[in-house]
Inverse folding.
């Protein structure tokens, strides 16, 4: 890559980091715990989020931002959970950036939220480089994608704070090798917490939401 | 996006298009039919390719280039099909570019091939913008990803010449709505050919390889 491109790219990333730092400060001041979800397209981010919002809304004030290249389908789908949701459509941009999150939050009173979810564009590569000011970045891996994905897309697993293996109800149907998947995640990121869920059968959802409640209750404490 | 970035990005794309044009000319001169595969991570590109290489190798001379951020796993896996395979590892780059293909082909006698497959990095966004000199771009969509993906990632479906719905053996297990998927593909790209396959059960593989043989037999004719 010629030097000029690298320079421009570093400029974009630096600017994004600064914007993300401001966002993180805003979130902290308003005691909002922010969770971002990253994965391949179709790994089940929206389904997991739908179940999570329904489960959490009786216990705390939740909301979500959802990113896609096109359509407002996810916002409409999540809106049916009865919580505030806003869609970010990125056009041809393959990831969310901190400024897009800031723009989407315009006029949204952060003080009205305890937990904000940010669902990224489905992409296992590019979102890794963009800090969105989140407290917790969760990478999803569905059992149908294959156990080798952490080895083949190491950067995003490296940038995550928690891994969630989704569609666990399909594990037998696809011959999912659980130990190999865990092993590969830990080869890339030793010690990363792993949960297994199925939004469809409900398996593992209680453990996931309970982990979120536990982490969000620490939201007043100093964070990264 | 500030003007300077757009300008640099357009420069990259223009350079890629020129390189791709040269590649296409090389392929044509050597009568190599080139098929690229694009999809989400885990949609089954490598599995489809593995079955395809085994099926085609008795009928014509085939080879493959496989792109990943990291690891040589796919090349090793495909190499077991007994055909020449080379791995391209892109590091942090989320897509293949024409120059990477040209570099990977260094020293490979194109005259020794009838059909060359290029498996892109798993990404449903960025590869859409990069011409690799291929004759046929095939976009894969697995039944586990959901029927709405064409609407949410329109650019890549728009840039494809053929769509292959993969893991069709799992259709019932995941409640795949076939007509909705076809409808959504055609909403984005009217008339796009659609095949349905399962590399695991073998369903649809004969129709797929027969379509490839049919198209490659036209490889001497003028192409796009």
């Amino acid at each position: 890559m010629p030097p000029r491109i690298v320079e421009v790219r570093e400029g974009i990333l630096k600017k994004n980091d600064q914007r993300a730092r401001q966002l993180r400060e805003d979130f902290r001041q308003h005691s909002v715990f922010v969770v971002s979800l990253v994965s391949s397209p179709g790994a089940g981010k929206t389904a997991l989020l739908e179940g999570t919002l329904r489960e959490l809304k009786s216990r705390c004030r939740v909301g979500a931002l959802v990113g896609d290249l096109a359509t407002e389908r996810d916002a409409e789908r999540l809106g049916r959970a009865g919580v505030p949701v806003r869609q970010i459509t990125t056009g041809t941009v393959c990831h969310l950036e901190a400024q897009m999150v800031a723009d989407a939050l315009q006029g949204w009173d952060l003080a009205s939220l305890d937990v904000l979810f940010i669902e990224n564009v489905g992409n296992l590569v590019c979102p890794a480089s963009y800090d969105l000011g989140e407290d917790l970045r969760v990478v999803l891996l569905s059992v149908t994608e294959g156990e080798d994905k952490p080895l083949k897309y190491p950067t995003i697993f490296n940038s995550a704070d928690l891994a969630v293996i989704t569609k666990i109800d399909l594990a037998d149907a696809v011959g999912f090798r659980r130990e190999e998947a865990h092993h590969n995640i830990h080869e890339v990121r030793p010690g990363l917490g792993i949960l297994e869920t199925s939004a469809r059968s409900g398996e593992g959802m209680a453990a996931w939401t309970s982990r979120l409640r536990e982490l969000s209750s620490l939201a007043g404490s100093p964070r990264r």
